[in-house]
Specification:
Elements lengths: L4 H13 L10 H11 L3 E4 L8 H10 L7 E6 L4 H10 L3 E4 L4 H10 L12
Parallel strand pairs: 1-2, 2-3
Helix pairs in contact: 2-3, 3-4
Length: 123
């Protein structure tokens, strides 16, 4: 999910080419609604969203039974230790700075297929 429609669609297109099923939403409430129906293995989530920031969306996702173990990846223009710390506290597993490379995204997405010891491994 990204509030920049072009960035979200280009990332989605690349992930679809890699064989992933992708849904795109532009705001937090819509993403939460789709997550309850879609039950994704991985969520790429921007931090700087309108109305409800990505940290709040992540906290709400973590509280949802169907998303408690979903791999949450912050994909944001915000960089630095403070943002990484906020991402961990909100429940993100990883924090990537835009633009994230396809290779790194695929590595993280592949890790969702393996058992994960728990959240808090933000990188």
């Amino acid at each position: 999910m990204d509030d920049n429609a072009d960035a979200a669609e280009s990332t989605a297109m690349v992930l679809r080419l890699e064989g992933h099923e992708v849904k795109v939403e532009g705001d937090g409430p819509s993403a939460l609604e789709v997550a309850t129906e879609f039950h994704p293995d991985v969520i790429l989530l921007d931090i700087g969203l309108p109305d409800m920031d990505g940290y709040e969306v992540a906290r709400r996702l973590r509280a949802m039974p169907g998303c408690a173990n979903t791999l949450l990846i912050a994909l944001s223009g915000y960089a630095g230790k403070d943002y990484l710390d906020h991402a961990r506290q909100a429940g993100f597993d990883h924090h990537l700075v835009k633009p994230a490379g396809v290779t790194r995204l695929n590595q993280l997405i592949s890790s969702a297929r393996s058992p994960r010891p728990g959240a808090g491994n933000a990188s």
